[in-house]
Recover the amino acids of this structure.
C-alpha cells in the first residue's frame, strides 16, 4: 500500500517506520530537516522537505499513487488544508488527520474527514479512569 504522511513528529515518524517495516511504501513530508532525522537509518522509505499544502511537495511524495494520506503535523489548519487538497485535487481514497482543538475536530468531522483528536481522547480516558476508581 502506498502511504503519504505529512508531519514527522514522534507520531509521524513512528507511524512511518511501523508501516514501512510491514511492507508498505511510505513517503514522509516535513518542513523541518531535523524532524526527518526521527525516521532513523533503518527507514528506507522516502523523505522530503516541504510544506504539505504545496502541490509540488505532495507530487514529489507521489500523492498521485497513494491509497492513504495521513496528516499529523502539529498545526490543525495545515492538516485540514492538506487533507482537503489531497481529497479534492488528488482524489486519495483514504485520508486521516490529527486535530488538537476539540471544536475544530467536530467541524472537521462534519466535513466528512476521518480525524483523531488526542485532546478529546485523553480527556475521555481520564474521565473513564476516574469513574472506575470512584
Amino acid at each position: 500500500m502506498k502511504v503519504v504522511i505529512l508531519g514527522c513528529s514522534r507520531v509521524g515518524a513512528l507511524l512511518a517506520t511501523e508501516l514501512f517495516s510491514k511492507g508498505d511504501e511510505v513517503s514522509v513530508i516535513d518542513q523541518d530537516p531535523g524532524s526527518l532525522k526521527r525516521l532513523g537509518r533503518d527507514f528506507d522509505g522516502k523523505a522530503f522537505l516541504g510544506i504539505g499544502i504545496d502541490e509540488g511537495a505532495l507530487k514529489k511524495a507521489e500523492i498521485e499513487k497513494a491509497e492513504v494520506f495521513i496528516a499529523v503535523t502539529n498545526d490543525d489548519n495545515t492538516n485540514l488544508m492538506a487533507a482537503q487538497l489531497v481529497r479534492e485535487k488528488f482524489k486519495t481514497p483514504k485520508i486521516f488527520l490529527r486535530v488538537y482543538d476539540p471544536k475544530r475536530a467536530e467541524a472537521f468531522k462534519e466535513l466528512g474527514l476521518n480525524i483523531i483528536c488526542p485532546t478529546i481522547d485523553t480527556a475521555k480516558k481520564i474521565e473513564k479512569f476516574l469513574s472506575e476508581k470512584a
Observations:
- Strands lie at 2-6, 25-30, 46-49, 68-71, 94-98, 114-116.
- The helical segments are 10-21, 33-36, 55-60, 76-90, 102-110, 118-133.
- The chain has one domain: 2-133.
